Structure formats: structure tokens, C-alpha cells
Amino acid sequence: MENNSIINAVKRVERAGSENSKVTEKLKVACIELGKFIEKQVPNDVKLPRDYIVRTFDSTYYLGKIDHDAKQEDVDWINGEPYAPARLITNKYNPPTRKICLEFAKDISEGLLDEIAEFLEDRIKKEEEAINIVENVIIKEGE
Question: Is the full-model pTM beyond 0.70?
Fold first, then answer.
């Protein structure tokens, strides 16, 4: 390989590396922003479609995807139930990895937001039915 060819290859790797870093950072920022929006819309500690969940740590909410591949020693037990770690998307201390962001983006492109909206709509319907049942009992008791 000629000297010029090597120099050109080094410059090309440098440009591609710099661009890759910028694009990866932009992907992470976009995922965090969308994740924070989702956090505000959904209940805490309820399993969402595709194994997503919003967890609270130190009074801060985090969106993540349950990590079914976690080692047994990494699973927390709360009230006798396994509390699997999640691959966090909106962790302010440790930004998500590229892999987590790409998986999140793929889930979004395949309809995750519609699935979350449907999940919430079904939840509302069930709660409204429960309210009607309880209110009917209260009315009958008052007669």
C-alpha cells in the first residue's frame, strides 16, 4: 500500500469515526427524549407492551425494557417477587447504549407507541367498569 493510500485511509477512518460518534449521540438524545415522554404517560411499575416498564429509583422515573437475560444474582426481590433489572433508556447517570437505543427505535418503528396507547385505553376501560360496579354498590347501600 502506498503512503498516500495509507494517509487517505487514516483520514477516512477519522471522518467516519467522528461522524459515527455524532450520530450515535443524536440517537441516544432522541431515545432519551421519547423515553421521558413515555414516562410521563404511563403508570409506574406496570409491565407495558414488549416488556417495557417505568421504574422509580430515588424519586426519579426511568423507562427501560425488562432484561430477561439478567443473571439470577442481579435480580432484586421486592415483597417476595422477582424485580428484574431493566435495560434503562432514560437513566441520567448512565446513558443507554447504542444497542439499547437501536432496539428501542426498532420497537417504535414496529408500533410500540400504538401498543402503549391501546394498553392505556384498555386500562381506562377496565377502571371505568370497576368504578361503575363500586358506585352501584354504594348507591344500593344508600337506599
Answer: yes
